[in-house]
Write a structure and sequence with these properties.
about 450 residues, mainly alpha, Cytochrome Bc1 Complex, Chain D, domain 2, 4-stranded mixed beta sheet
């Protein structure tokens, strides 16, 4: 018992962090305009607004729920409100949070805030990000209490988690790599925290270092593999990654949806050189594909609908009557495809009216059906920014579950490159429907403690 007590006391002494004194809220005019502008770009790369803004909430005021296997964590208020935000934080306090995952008062932060990546950020960039946040509109909003299982509701345990899974920064350039690669690595591994979504996690909620960029599930979507085993029918090139990150769309790979959509939206405000650097680095991770994907089938000739006419538009979400002789799921799926999908996906027209050849769609060829089911249900809304990006109606309210399942099964069989069908498709659809229910009030998230 004495030994155990001594070890416990030693751990507490090791884990203890002293508070950093509060300061008077800085005046926005005290920060240089150029520094604030650069901080805005860094915040966009870090996707800060997405995680620190609740649905219909005030920008950066926190309150977004992250449901993990360990309980629910709520993002914090990072506006310069002195009482409920970070208005009385000094730059040193902010830097400690970014680098060490410890707040101004000395409390450990849960790594839903990905300080295991942010620790790589350089001092000057942390200063620019601090300047940007301190010049935002203050919002008074108390932090919601986290709902975590015992003993993880005791933050001191995170000192042990950090010891096991966090390598302190800042980023050290690799001398055998060129400047563009190092810039991309710095952004993607640091503020961009790409691995937080694209790397699977272990039982402790940390990224599995042995499976970097091997794909993972987040927010009910599947973040695809970014390593050399990615099975896209058309291998990703640096130019394709750049175009995808810039516009959220590439004709050989599809459109950014789910958690990737706000990432692309934020990158629109980032300098071109930074986006190019990230693309260069990710292309290097992918390298030469190790696996040759199955041959992509050619899109079939556009099917006729029941009246014998070629479908003219998939913009209508009202389906024509399905003939009673569509007795099998395959027949039903084929008819639904002809009535609702073929006109856009086989027309050969440019976006937004045209659409990707479904034989190239990772949502159909991927190991998980989650992304395809979500796209079928929610569609792809117009972005409203004047860009020629794809649009697609959602069928959540116009197709029944048997129809969605039949269509998904048909798409997998027709365009999946001879891959086997998905297991437990009805259960997955039921879960996706549940996740999409706004009354649920919470969003699924990656497994983070």
């Amino acid at each position: 018992m004495i030994v155990i007590a001594a070890l416990g006391a030693g751990f507490v002494a090791y884990a203890w962090r002293s508070p950093i004194a509060a300061i008077a809220q800085p005046e926005p005019a005290s920060f240089k305009a150029g520094e604030v502008e650069r901080g805005a770009q860094l915040a966009a790369i870090g996707d800060c607004n997405t995680c620190h803004t609740a649905e219909n909430g005030k920008l950066f005021a926190g309150g977004r729920a992250f449901v993990t296997p360990f309980g629910t964590i709520y993002s914090t208020n990072i506006t310069p409100d002195a009482e409920t935000g970070i208005g009385n934080w000094s730059l040193a306090a902010f830097q400690r949070a970014m680098r060490e995952g410890v707040d101004r008062e000395g409390n450990y932060l849960y790594p839903a805030f990905p300080y295991d990546h942010f620790t790589l950020t350089r001092d000057d960039d942390i200063g620019a990000l601090y300047a940007f946040l301190m010049t935002r509109e203050p919002a008074r909003q108390e932090a919601s209490a986290n709902e975590l299982v015992f003993p993880l509701n005791h933050r001191v345990l995170l000192a042990g988690w950090k010891l096991l899974f966090v390598s302190p920064g800042p980023y050290q350039a690799q001398p055998d790599r060129d400047e563009l690669w190092n810039r991309g690595a710095y952004l993607a591994e640091g503020l961009g925290h790409c691995g937080a979504c694209h790397t699977p996690r272990n039982a402790f909620g940390a990224e599995d270092s042995g499976r970097r960029y091997a794909g993972a599930d987040i927010d009910g979507w599947h973040a695809y593999r970014l390593d050399s085993t990615a099975d896209a029918h058309v291998p990703w090139s640096e130019d394709a990654i750049y175009a995808y990150l810039r516009s959220g769309w590439h004709g050989d790979h599809g459109v950014a949806r789910g958690p990737m959509a706000p990432v692309v939206e934020n990158l629109a405000s980032v300098p071109d050189d930074d986006v190019r650097a990230i693309a260069h680095y990710i292309a290097g991770i992918m390298g030469v594909p190790k696996l040759q994907p199955p041959s992509a089938p050619q899109a079939p000739a556009v099917a006729m609908n029941q009246s014998g006419a070629r479908p003219q538009s998939a913009g209508s979400q009202t389906l024509p009557p399905i003939a009673p002789d569509a007795a099998t799921a395959s027949d039903l799926g084929a008819r639904l495809y002809a009535a609702s999908c073929a006109a856009c996906h086989e027309a050969g027209r440019a976006v937004p009216i045209g659409a990707i050849n479904l034989a190239l769609s990772s949502s159909i060829t991927g190991a998980s059906p989650d992304n395809l089911l979500r796209i079928l249900l929610t569609g792809i809304p117009a972005k409203g920014d004047g860009q020629r990006n794809p649009i697609m109606p959602g069928f959540a309210n116009t197709m029944s579950d048997p129809q969605i399942l039949a269509l998904a099964t048909y798409l997998r069989g027709r365009f999946g490159g001879q891959r086997p069908g998905w297991d437990d498709l009805p259960a997955t659809l039921s879960q996706v429907r549940t996740d999409m229910n706004p009354k649920a009030g919470r969003q699924a998230s990656a497994a983070r403690p």
